[in-house]
Amino acid sequence: MPVGIFRVSLLVLTAIVNHPLLFPKENGTVPEDPQDIIQKMKEREETLRLEQLRLEREIAEQEATQKALEKAAKVVEESEKEKVRWDMWTALSMVIFLLIELWRQDFQEGIWQDTGGEEDDMAVLGKAFKGVSFPDKAVLASFYEKRILGTTGDMARMREMVEGFADDLLEALRSVCNRDADMEVEDCMGVGSMYENWRVRKPFVCDLIVPFAPPEPYCFRSQTWCSGDSFPPDEQGYGTIKVCRADEAVTGCICDKTKLGEDMLCLLHSQANATRPSREMEDLLCFKNTQYLDADQVMKWFQIAVTKAWNRISHKYEFDLSFSLLDSPGALKIKFRSGKSIAFNLTPVVQYENSDVYFISHFPRSSLAGDLPSSTHWFLTFAVYERRFIQLVSKTLPANACHVSCLQILSFVHGKQCSLTGPSGLTNYHLKTVMLHLLQARPSQDWATEKLEARLQDMLKFLEKCLHEKKLYHFFIGNGKVPAELGFPIIFQRAEPLNLFRPFVLQRDVYRKTVDTFHEMLRNMTTLINEYTVHIPLVQTNGIHKESF
Length: 549
Fold this sequence. Notes:
The chain has 549 residues and is of the alpha+beta class. It has helices at residues 2-17, 34-113, 119-122, 127-130, 137-148, 151-176, 193-196, 271-274, 278-283, 295-313, 383-394, 403-421, 428-441, 452-469, 490-493, 502-506, 508-533, and strands at 184-185, 189-191, 205-213, 218-224, 238-245, 319-323, 331-336, 341-351, 358-360, 377-381. The protein has a domain at 130-248 and 278-531: 2-Layer Sandwich (Beta Polymerase, domain 2), CATH 3.30.460.90. Strands 1, 2, 3, 4, 5, 6, 7, 8, 9 and 10 form a ten-stranded mixed β-sheet that branches. The chain is elongated, with a radius of gyration of 47 Å. It is found in: Cell membrane; Nucleus outer membrane. It is a single-pass type I membrane protein. Residues 1-20 form the signal peptide.
């Protein structure tokens, strides 16, 4: 009985505990509404979608970052390769440039090496040369002794007389000039054939150059065609001279080189000192409204100054002094009461920096020389270095060397031929340039006295070769073999060679006339030398023979 009651009680208790209405939340799950379930599913789906989008964005950003890094690495790698490639091209370009520069220098040096007198190099002769018979050694020696050697003493006496008078004239010129406003004149120097002892034709003319400088506080600053700026071909060999104050910067300001607009002002220079009064620059012999020295103004100033100087000292001398040529600044002529006369050139020049190269105001002109590009362009003369080179080389040659004799004979014959057929494009300066080239190219022993005939033929052959090629290079410009003892400016040694026969390319009529005259001279050489070997007085021509120097 008790056991049955206990079982019934346990059953009832179990039923009560497990009834869903007694513990609806803790012990059981009440069925939810289907709409709530659907809503929760949608919310869950939206949450998952947003999470997916976020993950996709992160993945996309990571991929973009990875691509950017890969691209940057690729760019760096390509730049490294390009840099290596560029360095290779740069090195290759430098090597090519150096090879070209070495070839150019060797070619320029070869210009002087090719004048060594080899038969293959010299045998570029015209048909007129092949049938020419040259005077033998005995005839040349007799001609030189009778017609040329006797003029040496006359030249020495004339040089002494002209130099003494020129020094006195320049001293008087300094006394009549205003030391505070006029140009300062230095001592004169003798150049050209009279001072190199190879002048043979009368009338003898001494060439003297007179350096001058501006008054303080001004100075000259020169610029040549080989100083870096581009010059047209017809201006090679020329330069310009600028008159500046000594305290001005060497490089200058761009306002001095460029025309500024009316609304522009240089911040470095005030309007007061940016330009100078035109009258002041004209007093300094500059071209109108410029700072460049005017050769025509210099000529007028020098002629007036020489006239004043002569008026001051004329009472001391028993002769008259006059200008023989009005288009040359100092072509002077001394006329004695006996009727005899002496001519000499006193030419103002400007020194190039600290060298013995000079800007010359009026260079003696020949048929080849055209008009100057303008009156502000000055020709450069190397006459002082040419004289020094001849003196330097003469010390290494055998006694009584024949180099000067060759030049004298050739100059004499050429002058006589021109008096018969008219002037040609060849000048004595061209003949001297030929001698300078051969002096440098040939060994010293080749200039012995007994080799006069051979060296004269070499000069004629070399001249024929140059005429054939229309190329005769200036001896100093572009010549890297100039002896260091001369102290020649390196800027001209490194310049491109200057062709003295360049006008022949443009003036065909002059070239043809020159070649014809040269060939005619070759055919007449023996006749001319034989004719003037006997004692026949030289006929003095009227006027002044202008010698290029």
